[in-house]
Design brief:
InterPro entries: GH43_arabinanases, Glyco_hydro_43, Glyco_hydro_beta-prop_sf. Belongs to the glycosyl hydrolase 43 family. This is Glycosyl hydrolase family 43. The protein has one helix spanning 146-149; strands at residues 10-17, 22-28, 41-46, 52-59, 69-79, 82-91, 94-103, 111-112, 125-132, 138-144, 153-159, 166-175, 185-187, 191-193, 197-203, 209-217, 220-228, 237-239, 250-256, 262-268, 276-285, 288-291. It contains one helix and 22 strands. By secondary structure, the protein is mostly beta strands. The strands form six sheets. It has a four-stranded antiparallel β-sheet with strand order 1-2-3-4, with no helix packed on it. It has a four-stranded antiparallel β-sheet with strand order 5-6-7-8, with no helix packed on it. A four-stranded antiparallel β-sheet has the order 9-10-11-12. The protein has one domain (4-291): 5 Propeller (Tachylectin-2, Chain A), CATH 2.115.10. The mean pLDDT is 97.
């Protein structure tokens, strides 16, 4: 058995499966996700969020797979009885993008479902997440990356009912600089810019639609929230003025434990190889999410 302290992981995504009483932990699990040849994605499982079995190889690229580097931020969503992984990939001379994989088991193996990325092929994109609206239509929420456009955006694009491809054009929801808590990042490689990372959608108990997303404040990775004023994925999105977490951690998601607690999962610190999964209990107070 392993503890969270034993597991190097970025972008930790927890999938609780009530029927089995098990939590599945996915994330960016290569030792160095920034450079070199990628290996794949591993998954861990636990009954109590403290002691973990694994790693199990959730995804290993087939010989003809188009991407060989930057395997980032896998999320696994249950949709129409199957397990769909949304994950970021890149190759030399090819824009980074989110591809959708599928499996009949939460441990995998996951195999390509979409034909390459479903994000626009000429955009540098990352961190796609699934959202199903009130009419049952699937959407992917994703980031148009700041390294290409300087002021990163979060966009939505409708997906085909079988999640095999995007339909329609991407719709911009907001830019990073619209959030009052976000500071400009100074990158030696890419210069100055405003970062959008890791969107995740969450419905509060009173029906509000929140989006969790990450950027930088004071040079450190941070986690913020936006709320849809219409209650719909297309917004208008209002940024909460202060970050939810600003202690050099982010790329979070929210899940509910089997005993009903609301948990924020993120990685901290934001440096390789020291990043670890952190779970923080949240509460809803007057319709607002905050740390408990």
């Amino acid at each position: 058995m392993l503890t969270k302290a034993d597991i190097q992981i970025r972008d930790p995504f927890v999938l609780p499966i009530k029927e089995s009483g098990l939590y599945y932990l996915y994330g960016s699990t290569d030792k160095d996700i920034w450079k070199g040849k990628a290996t794949g994605f591993d998954v861990y499982r636990s009954k109590d969020l403290e002691n973990w079995e694994g790693p199990f190889p959730a995804f290993r690229p087939p010989a003809d797979f188009w991407s060989d580097t930057n395997y980032w931020a896998p999320e696994v969503h249950i949709y129409k009885g199957r397990y769909y992984m949304f994950a970021t990939f890149k190759a030399e001379g090819v824009c980074r993008g989110t591809q959708i994989l599928v499996s009949d088991d939460p441990l995998g193996p996951f195999v390509p479902h979409s034909d390459g990325p479903v994000t626009p092929r000429d955009w540098e994109c990352l961190d796609g997440t699934l959202y199903v609206d009130k009419e049952g239509k699937p959407w992917m929420i994703f980031c148009h990356e700041w390294v290409q456009i300087k002021d990163g955006t979060i966009c939505a694009i409708q997906l085909a009912d079988d999640l095999s491809k995007a339909v329609g054009e991407p719709i911009r929801l907001f830019t990073a600089s619209e959030a009052p808590w976000v500071d400009q990042l100074e990158s030696p490689r890419h210069g100055p810019g405003y970062v959008t990372d890791g969107p995740f959608m969450y419905h509060s108990s009173d029906g509000k639609l929140y989006m969790l997303w990450s950027s930088f404040r004071g040079g450190r990775y941070a986690q913020g929230l936006a709320v849809s004023e219409s209650g719909d994925v297309l917004g208008r999105w209002k940024q909460l003025p202060e970050p939810l977490y600003e202690s050099d951690g982010g790329h979070g998601m929210i899940f509910q434990t089997f005993d009903g607690r609301i948990m924020l999962s993120l990685h901290s610190p934001n440096d390789t190889p020291n990043e670890r999964a952190v779970f923080i209990e949240l509460e809803e107070v007057d319709g607002v999410l905050r740390k408990k």
